[in-house]
Every structure is written in C-alpha cells, then in structure tokens.
Design goal:
- By secondary structure, the chain is mainly α.
- The chain is built from 4 helices and no strands.
- The protein is globular and about 40 Å long.
- The protein starts with a helix and ends with a helix.
Length: about 120
C-alpha cells in the first residue's frame, strides 16, 4: 500500500471519529454530514489509489469516485452506494434544508461498512 493511501485511510478515520463525537448534537448536523462525506471521499480515494486509478475530474463527488471504481471492475463497491447521498454535505459551506436532512446515525453505519470494505481490500494486497 502506498503512503498516500495509508494517509487517506488515517485521515478518513479521523473524520469518522469527529462525526461520531458530534452525532447527537443537532446544531452540528452539517458538520457531521461533512465529516462523514469526507471520510467516504478519503476511503474511496484510498481504494482508487490501491488500484492505481486516477480520481475523476470532480474528486469530491462521491458518485463519480464510486463510478470510477465500478468502471474498473470493482463490483464490491456497488453495495455501498448509500454513501453517495452524503455528496451534498461534502463542502465546508454546505447547508442542507431541514426537510432534506439525512439520518446521520444511519449514515455512520454506511461509512463503517465502507471502512470494513477498505480493510478487507488491504488484507488482499
């Protein structure tokens, strides 16, 4: 594994930990969503890096990152498509209307599942 992939995985864990820390503070909803989206972005980029794939042009778009992996025959990523819904949170100035907010507790689970997939892929290297 490259040093860059390792760095991405460690930073993703930091983002996930920060999201969990503020999970039940409703005033921090966008921050939690941002940190979860950032964790996903970094896990997906680490998976791309492990496969020697270039990031898509819009490398903050979780759907584009997942599509890059799918297009290169990494079908296991398809079962983690729920994380794409975090894309609107993936900006420091994100503001998601209250009626469009995601259940962050549910999405922590989705990010944890993506993290497990990354771990499984590391064992295969």
């Amino acid at each position: 594994m490259s040093a860059h992939a390792k760095s991405l995985i460690l930073k993703a864990q930091d983002d996930l930990d920060l999201a969990k820390k503020h999970l039940h503070d409703e005033k921090q909803h966008e921050l939690v969503g941002y940190n979860l989206a950032q964790a996903c972005e970094k896990y997906l980029k680490a998976l791309c890096d492990m496969r020697g794939l270039q990031y898509p042009e819009d490398d903050h778009d979780l759907d584009a990152l997942m599509s890059t992996l799918e297009e290169h025959n990494f079908s296991a990523i398809s079962s983690h498509a729920d994380v794409i819904e975090l894309t609107p949170y993936n900006a420091t100035n994100a503001h998601v209307h209250e009626d469009e907010r995601l259940d962050m507790e549910e999405y922590v689970g989705y990010v944890e599942n993506l993290k497990k997939l990354v771990g499984e892929q590391l064992r295969l290297l």
